[in-house]
Amino acid sequence: FAQKGQSLGLLLLDINGFKVINEAWGYPIGDELLQQMAQRLQDCVVQTGEKALLARIGGNEFAIITSSPLLNAAISPLAQVILSAMQPSFTAGSYEMYVDVSIGAAQFPEHGKDAESLLRCADIALHRAKSIGTHFAAYTAGLATPVKAMQLVNALHKAVERREFTLYYQPKIHLQSGQLAGWEALLRWPSRELKRLILPGEFIPVLESSGLIVPVGEWVIREAARQVETWRKAGLPTVPVSVNVSPRQIQQGRVYEVIATTLADTGIPTDSLEVELTESTFLHQLDIAAELMKALNGLGIRLALDDFGTGYSSLRYLRYLPLDTLKIDQSFIAEMEQDTSIVDAVIALGHGLGLQVVAEGIETPIQQELLRQRGCDTGQGYLYSRPIPGAEVPRWCVEHPQFVPFPL
Ligand code: C2E
Ligand code: MG
Ligand code: MG
């Protein structure tokens, strides 16, 4: 059904805990549920008006080939529609039941040139979605084939032992005053073995699935705090530095203990550290995450919700989690010159809830101006600076006095 040379998306969907449904209600009920799911999937395809082919390829596994390409790391539009459609309860026999599904996605021809390799990539993405507890994951090179992934895991283990990681910092700018509002710490891996600087997109998924994100994430927090202390001693203005904390760290790590002891050891002001969390943190562990956030809030740590709008979650939690900041995902900033509707809505939502709003990925003066007109508080992006090593920050401040709150 596709034209020659056209790119295609492959979605693999399966039901989490289907075995339990079969055991609890019996196979006839399980079968009926599968039929209803197939019908809802069919309706989703019709609703989006995409050309798509739907198949049941295993016990509780469905595959959908679509003619629309995936949107990079963001969720595919069809997957989004499907996830919404799976939310209302099903009635099979006389039982009402809710199902929880995960979707993995891969793209032809980028991820595989034949059915087998494409299916394998979608399957790897599906397992990643399950292992980090999100509903959707797209295949990325970092997940790689099992062999490559194993090599990467081994190289990462060595990197942890050899302390090969480093942090880069990207400035955030107050859009109204034009002054420096803070920095975001971003992990970099100058790998000795692979002989290049590796970006997080390639290795964070593996750190997460291998559990290595816990020790590395702890190091990130301590290192960012140490950097704040160093800059303070050098007489630089103290502005908040944010660190990214992944769902797996929340689940397994000792985030609160590490932050509390780091603050005590360094003596830096508590509001000079900020924690960025993504929506996927709240999907399967809302209670744990909420408790941790309240505890961090009690310490005086600021909390930001990262990549807002790309995850798949309810808006309800926004009101009762102790958030300070909402970060609009860069995909919405990138499309602002054509369409500002989502950015308008997110700014209104954030301000309505009393939150600061940060725009990620500002690359052009036009985007900056559109955001400023709309009252967006803070901006971050290549327009101001790419992420730079911590040691280059003092020089950056001297070279960019227009951004720095007071003369150095
Ligand atoms: P993020 O937290 O949303 O970080 C913003 C990403 O956007 C960074 O990519 C940054 O380099 C990039 N960026 C900034 N301005 C622009 C722009 O104007 N245009 C474009 N195209 N990109 C821009 P980076 O450093 O590759 O990090 C990617 C993601 O990896 C981060 O997204 C974050 O989710 C994760 N990450 C980075 N460091 C850490 C860490 O220490 N721990 C954890 N758990 N995750 C991290
Ligand atoms: Mg971030
Ligand atoms: Mg982000």
Short description:
The chain contains 15 helices and 17 strands.
Overall spatial form: globular
Largest sheet, strands/sense/barrel: 8 strands, mixed, barrel
**Bound ligand species:** ligand C2E, magnesium ion
Low-confidence stretches: none
Strand-residue fraction?
A: 15-25%
Count of helical stretches: 15
End-to-end CA span = 64 Å
Which structural class matches the secondary elements? alpha/beta
Radius of gyration from the alpha-carbon trace, in angstroms: 23 Å
Give a count of the beta strands, DSSP E runs of length 2 or more.
17
Helix content range: 40-55%
Taking all residues together, what is the mean pLDDT? Answer: 90
- Give the spatial strand order of the biggest sheet: 8-9-11-12-13-14-15-16
Mind explaining what this structure looks like?
The chain is of the alpha/beta class. The chain has 15 helices and 17 strands. An 8-stranded mixed β-barrel has the order 8-9-11-12-13-14-15-16. The chain has a 5-stranded mixed sheet with strand order 2-3-1-6-7. It has a two-stranded antiparallel ribbon with strand order 4-5. A hairpin with a 2-residue loop joins strand 2 (52-58) and strand 3 (61-66). Helix 5 crosses helix 6 (200-210). 40% of the residues are buried. The model has no long low-confidence stretch (mean pLDDT 90).
